Recover the amino acids of this structure.
């Protein structure tokens, strides 16, 4: 084996590691506000609002004008490109408002999925071309972390070995390029919840995918201490007839992570997928109460699960802005508690009663 | 991906996981007494004792007949095939003596190295043929764990990708077969210290090797909670002119492990390689004091570093039995302390005096 050629200097590593730790400091998680123009179209049409640049700006303003209460529960915000250069009504750039709250600014850098020929509808993700130059510019413009989403799905024959390998590889290339530019890469290998598979199947697939991701990151000389992972929780498929408790979801999720995610990774920030706001909080809470040793922070990087109520309260009306912001702050605080296992649920008996529902992990 | 076909039932997993945890509980470690006939020849020659079966039996008898309190520091003993079927002078089987002391009995399973053609004198390991049947028989004969030593070396073009992949694959096959037969596999991918490379290079190689090992274990559906790892510590090559402190060895070692070894692995039991008894203990202690996340037990699986003084004290004479046993018990006890970060070397004021020498891990 040839001598190693260090990818990063000691100073570069320290900067990356400090940023990552800042984002997942105890009780903090990420607001994923990086919906593309197309995704925002869906969200806004659901509340009868036209998908214009101004409306998207007004909506993000609702979120970003949250007061200092969010400082203790939001460690990072992921922006879409357009939003990174938008300002509030007073002409203050959104980036500055967020940074002034001590929150780290992040940027979505992938360019969406493309098909993998010869597979059963599987995809990889594009966006590597010119990525280094884009990252350098984003870093100048205030971004300290990035996000790249890969997508896998469970069916009879998927995810295939090719899909797993290819997506793991592009994630590793993206991560390597980010780090070269002082940007912490959030690595997101999402396994969709579509399908009727059970919890065990999702756990099995998640373990295979994550093992491949971490092998690829190692092969590409990525500095794990300066990364974050954004995985799906281990859940049954949407169409699965069996219902599982948050404790079962938690045990399956933490077991899968313990078998694949090296302790050097400072934090795991779960995506919420199709979960409701409350479900996403309850599951995160159960994960943080799981009796298995967990060497990484386990927190949130939620889009819909932080914004659904806020969006609904806003409905495009300036008069509703304050009430909508309150809805967002409420979910942020609840998830901040859940990230510490301190959420008592909306009125139900959380604590000790739930603890006993954990099934020993050798059953997983 | 095809549906998963579970390799182990919940009961099998529980049994394996309990054995593994028992071996490394409370600072306990492993006595590697599995020297082959040839290797014992080397040891005995140095104390001018003839390498006969009886002499080998006598030495092992002295070690195994120490006071029962040995089970507070020794959780497992690895035996060579011959020794598994030997008895003490009263006709009692060694393996029963050990079990009655509450020590788990293990067996060396590999059958030595074989060359890899087309490489710079690299090797793989043999022993897979009929391994399942051998494991089943050993299990009946009272054995609960196995050991298999793969060897990699650092040199020009070494370890090559082929050597790393092939040894990782053989380790994973061995581990899978062990678990099918109720044996906990100790996975030993030793990167030998021969050479003049520095600490950083050993760390780089160790990380590459371990990442490949854990990918292979995942590919082969090995249940990590029912395994143990036996790696080299990260050290400079024997011929390296630069000297490093135990704290530097510890930081490099734990950094490498926490980038590659999943938290699900219950214990890491270091080999001592060519280290002196005292260095092996000092390094293990520093490792346990290292301020990085360490979700696995960090203990010992020492051969020479537990037996060198005992062998010297014995000299082949029955009259030296007491001195031999004292020497062995002493090393067992200090290593158990070291496995808890509680070893205070003779002449030093306190544990605190060693703590401050850690360099921040971002330089690794």
């Amino acid at each position: 084996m040839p001598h190693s050629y260090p990818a990063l200097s000691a100073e570069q590593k320290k900067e990356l590691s400090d940023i990552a730790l800042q984002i997942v400091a105890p009780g903090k998680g990420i607001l994923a506000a990086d919906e593309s123009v197309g995704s925002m179209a869906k969200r806004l049409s659901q509340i009868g609002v036209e998908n214009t640049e101004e409306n998207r700006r007004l909506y993000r303003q609702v979120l970003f004008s949250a007061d200092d209460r969010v400082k203790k529960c939001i460690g990072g915000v992921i922006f879409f490109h357009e939003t990174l250069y938008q300002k509030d009504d007073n002409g203050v750039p959104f980036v500055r408002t967020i940074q002034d709250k001590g929150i780290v600014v992040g940027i979505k850098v992938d360019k969406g999925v493309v098909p993998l020929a010869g597979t059963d509808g599987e995809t990889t993700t594009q966006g590597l071309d010119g990525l280094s130059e884009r990252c350098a510019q984003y870093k100048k413009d205030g971004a300290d972390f990035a996000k790249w989403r890969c997508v896998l799905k469970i069916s009879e024959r998927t995810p295939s070995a090719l899909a797993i390998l290819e997506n793991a590889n592009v994630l590793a290339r993206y991560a390597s390029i980010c780090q070269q530019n002082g940007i912490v890469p959030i690595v997101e290998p999402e396994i969709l919840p579509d399908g009727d598979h059970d919890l065990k199947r999702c756990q099995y697939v998640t373990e295979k995918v994550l093992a491949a991701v971490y092998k690829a990151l190692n092969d590409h000389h990525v500095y794990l201490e300066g990364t974050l992972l954004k995985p799906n929780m281990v859940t049954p498929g949407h169409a699965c007839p069996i219902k599982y408790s948050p404790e079962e979801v938690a045990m399956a999720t933490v077991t899968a992570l313990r078998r694949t995610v090296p302790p050097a990774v400072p934090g795991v920030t779960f995506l919420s997928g199709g979960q409701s706001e409350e479900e996403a909080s309850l599951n995160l809470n159960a994960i943080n109460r799981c009796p298995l040793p967990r060497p990484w922070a386990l927190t949130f990087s939620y889009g819909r699960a932080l914004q659904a109520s806020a969006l609904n309260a806003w409905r495009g009306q300036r008069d509703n802005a304050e009430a909508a912001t309150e809805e967002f702050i409420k979910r942020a605080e609840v998830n901040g508690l859940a990230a510490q296992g301190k959420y008592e649920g909306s009125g139900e008996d959380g604590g000790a009663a739930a603890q006993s529902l954990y099934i020993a992990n050798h059953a997983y | 991906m095809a549906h998963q076909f579970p390799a182990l039932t919940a009961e099998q997993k529980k049994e394996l996981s309990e054995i593994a945890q028992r071996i490394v509980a409370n600072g306990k470690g492993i006595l590697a007494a599995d020297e082959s006939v040839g290797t014992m020849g080397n040891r005995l020659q140095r104390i001018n004792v003839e390498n006969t079966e009886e002499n080998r039996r006598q030495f092992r008898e002295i070690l195994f007949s120490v006071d029962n309190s040995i089970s507070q520091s020794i959780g497992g003993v690895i035996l060579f095939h011959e020794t598994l079927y030997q008895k003490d002078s009263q006709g009692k089987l060694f393996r029963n003596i050990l079990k009655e002391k509450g020590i788990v009995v293990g067996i060396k399973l590999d059958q030595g190295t074989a060359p890899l053609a087309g490489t710079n004198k690299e090797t793989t390991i043999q022993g897979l043929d009929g391994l399942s049947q051998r494991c089943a028989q050993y299990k009946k004969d009272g054995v609960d764990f196995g050991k298999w030593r793969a060897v990699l070396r650092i040199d020009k073009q070494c370890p090559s990708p082929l050597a790393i992949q092939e040894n990782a694959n053989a380790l994973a096959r061995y581990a899978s077969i062990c678990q099918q037969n109720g044996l906990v596999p100790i996975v030993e991918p030793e990167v030998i210290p021969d050479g003049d490379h520095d600490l950083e290079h050993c760390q780089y190689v160790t990380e590459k090797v371990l990442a490949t090992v854990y990918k292979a274990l995942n590919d082969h559906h090995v249940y990590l909670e029912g395994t143990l790892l036996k790696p080299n510590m990260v050290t400079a090559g024997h011929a390296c002119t630069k000297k490093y402190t135990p704290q530097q060895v510890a930081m490099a070692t734990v950094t490498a492990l926490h980038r590659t070894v999943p938290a699900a692995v219950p214990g890491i039991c270091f080999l001592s390689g060519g280290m002196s008894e005292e260095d092996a203990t000092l390094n293990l202690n520093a490792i346990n004091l290292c301020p990085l996340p360490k979700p696995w037990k960090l203990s010992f699986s020492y051969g020479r570093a537990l037996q060198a003084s005992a062998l010297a004290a014995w000299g082949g004479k029955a009259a030296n039995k007491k001195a031999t046993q004292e020497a062995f018990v002493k090393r067992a006890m200090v290593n158990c302390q070291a496995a808890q970060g509680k070893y205070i070397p003779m002449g030093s004021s306190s544990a605190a005096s060693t703590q401050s020498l850690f360099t921040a891990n971002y330089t690794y």
